Automatic annotation (TrEMBL):
Any one Gene Ontology BP term: methylation
InterPro entries noted in UniProt: Methyltransf_Zn-bd_dom_put, Methyltransf_Zn-bd_dom_put_sf, MeTrfase_14, SAM-dependent_MTases_sf
Domain Methyltransferase putative zinc binding: 3-64
Location of the C-methyltransferase domain: 244-403
Protein name: Methyltransferase domain-containing protein
Superkingdom of this protein's organism: Bacteria
Keywords (A to Z) from UniProt: Methyltransferase, Transferase
GO molecular-function term, one example from the UniProt record: methyltransferase activity
């Protein structure tokens, strides 16, 4: 399995979510009567590195297709987060018009646009054609390729090594971790820095965030594990921050091991000590997750079945990948959830993979006035609750299933 960091045969199951189609493989109306391919969704934990990994049943070049439907710019919360990051990182590391900023998995230019506004040279690396073209229309130079050692050598050959190399929510998507992190080393200037953000495995385990598991995510990281991976390839983690995005993420800062200009923050030792205190360096920590996942499934299904018996209408908001994991593991179809509204026009008019629930515009919510609206992207719950506050006018209620069933 290419995504393995330590080449150890994996025998310890972290969680088994059965079979489901890839979470972003939305369907057109004409595809509804065609066969749909399902893949196993089972995670293992390495007894040596404690890296949680999926078997690579679906290849990265199939997942990140030209019709990829996730566009980062449709979340105002995420855009605000990125703008704040830009201002912070520019000030902290004194970036200017002579600096080179590169983002891996730059999507539709959601982040690089803020550096461009400050006249800082940028380069996006994005394998999906649909999102890359949107970035290019914004005037953001974007290479439509996967990142690894080969592309890193091309960056060097074209004299574009990075002063700041960014990867937001990409590390989990990488099928070959060793090649990817080795590429970071090559693409980084001698005094450059890498920042990467990714969901923290500790939060996934302790807050029942099993819906963040899908085929696009090959790996799930503790700080203990990611530190090992970067050190193997000559990169030192000198700073780490716990941030609230995606239900609790880490932002790591890396430098060349040979770079002695940047001291190691006390946050590094503190987080390592925190993870060890919780037992994340033992197999025992990773046991018992399946039972917590199953409880969410049974509670959510019981709620939906009860509303069906009562003649109530349930709809959803946010056609997010995490919602598709939840729906498919629970076996929910459109008889229990009528439709899912979403802000993105790239998803509207399509159907969710597996469940075949139609994706519509927000206007459908206003027209149908459902009794309950399930918020699938619970990580931006507050943003959505404010956006849809008008459902209170017909006594509508909100629902989330994770970390536990909540109705308000």
């Amino acid at each position: 399995m290419n995504c393995r960091f330590d080449n150890l045969s994996l025998t310890h199951v972290f969680v088994d979510l059965g079979f489901s189609p890839p979470s972003n493989s939305f369907l057109s109306a004409s595809q509804l009567n065609e066969p749909e391919v399902y893949y196993p969704l089972k995670l293992y934990v390495s007894e040596r590195t404690f890296l949680v990994q999926i078997d690579e049943y679906k290849k990265a070049n199939e997942i990140f297709s030209q019709e990829y439907v996730y566009f980062s710019s449709y979340s105002s919360f995420w855009l605000a987060h990125c703008k704040s990051y830009t201002e912070m990182i520019m000030k902290r590391f004194e970036l200017n018009a002579a600096s080179q900023v590169i983002e891996i998995a730059s999507n539709d230019g959601y982040l690089l646009q803020y550096f461009k506004e400050k006249n800082i040279p940028v380069l996006g690396i994005e394998p999906t054609l649909s999102t890359a073209q949107v970035a290019q229309r914004k005037g953001i130079p974007t290479w439509i390729e996967f990142f690894g050692t080969d592309l890193a050598k091309k960056i060097v050959a074209e004299n574009k090594q990075a002063d700041l190399l960014i990867g937001n929510n990409v590390l989990a998507h990488v099928p070959n971790l060793n090649d990817f992190v080795a590429g970071l080393k090559i693409a980084l200037k001698p005094k450059g820095i890498v920042t990467m953000e990714f969901p923290h495995l500790m939060q996934l385990n302790e807050n029942n965030q099993f819906d963040t598991i899908y085929h696009e995510h090959f790996s799930y990281f503790s700080f203990l594990t990611v530190k090992q991976i970067f050190e193997k390839h000559g990169l030192t983690l000198f700073e780490v921050e716990e941030i609230p995005t995606h239900g609790g993420s880490l932002r790591i800062y890396a430098k060349h091991a040979e770079n002695n200009d940047l001291p190691c923050s006390k946050n590094v030792d503190n987080l390592l000590a925190k993870e060890i205190a919780k037992g994340m360096n033992t197999l025992a920590y990773y046991q018992g997750f399946q039972q917590k996942v199953d409880k969410i499934k049974y509670d959510f299904l019981s709620f939906l079945l009860e509303q069906k018996k009562l003649g109530k209408k349930v709809a959803g908001y946010g056609a997010a990948a995490k919602g598709n994991t939840l729906l498919n593991y629970c076996g929910i179809k459109k008889d229990l959830i009528s439709f899912v509204a979403d802000k993105s026009p790239y998803k509207q008019g399509k159907y969710l993979p597996g469940s075949h629930i139609p994706v519509v515009s927000e206007e459908e919510l206003k027209a149908e006035k459902p009794d309950f609206v399930v918020i699938f992207p619970w990580n931006i719950q507050k943003e959505i609750e404010e956006q849809l506050s008008y459902i209170r006018s017909w006594n509508g209620k909100f629902v989330v299933a994770i970390p536990e069933l909540k109705i308000w």
